[in-house]
Specification:
By secondary structure, this protein is mostly helical. 58% of the residues lie in helices and 0% in strands.
Length: 168
């Protein structure tokens, strides 16, 4: 019985002591703080140490006339235009020659002439009519010509001299 009484009294004292101890400490947000006023010198010192970052402030020490080196923009490079135009002209010439050869093979077949070159069926679409083959090749020529025209328009908008595209 004494044990129960001792245990109960100890528990009561413990329960009473915990809130009293918590009341002695300052609560969050209610302690008295000293208001700190930061000056520009204080902020500059912290920034130099790398402790803060000031956003939206311009650097007065850098002259405005000094500019960063511009990144490479291929649409401003005349050499890029010359390379692209040469590639497209070569492709256009190849496609025109392919179309001409196809037409010639069709004419030879219609007139029953002896064909020397023939039509390479591995390269073109199989199981299409000859007229559809001509349309496909004409479409490829037109697409390449449109790409070359688009490149010329882009060069004109970026003030690239027209002779650059012609390789001059």
């Amino acid at each position: 019985m004494t044990r129960h009484l001792f245990f109960t009294v100890s528990l009561a004292l413990l329960c009473a002591a915990i809130p009293l101890r918590a009341a002695d400490r300052p609560h969050a947000g209610t302690d008295t703080r000293n208001t700190v006023v930061w000056t520009n010198d204080d902020l500059e010192r912290l920034r130099l140490l790398g402790l803060i970052c000031i956003v939206g402030r311009t650097n007065e020490e850098t002259p405005k006339s000094a500019s960063q080196p511009q990144p490479y923009v291929k649409t401003q490079d005349p050499e890029w235009y010359a390379e692209q135009a040469a590639r497209l002209r070569d492709e256009l010439e190849r496609r025109r020659a392919q179309l001409g050869g196809y037409r010639q093979a069709m004419e030879d077949a219609k007139s029953l002439k002896a064909m020397t070159g023939g039509v390479n069926l591995d390269e073109s679409d199989i199981s299409i009519t000859p007229e559809a083959g001509i349309e496909i090749l004409q479409q490829r020529v037109s697409e390449t010509q449109m790409e070359l025209d688009a490149l010329e328009d882009l060069a004109r908008r970026n003030d690239i001299p027209p002779g650059t595209l012609r390789g001059q």
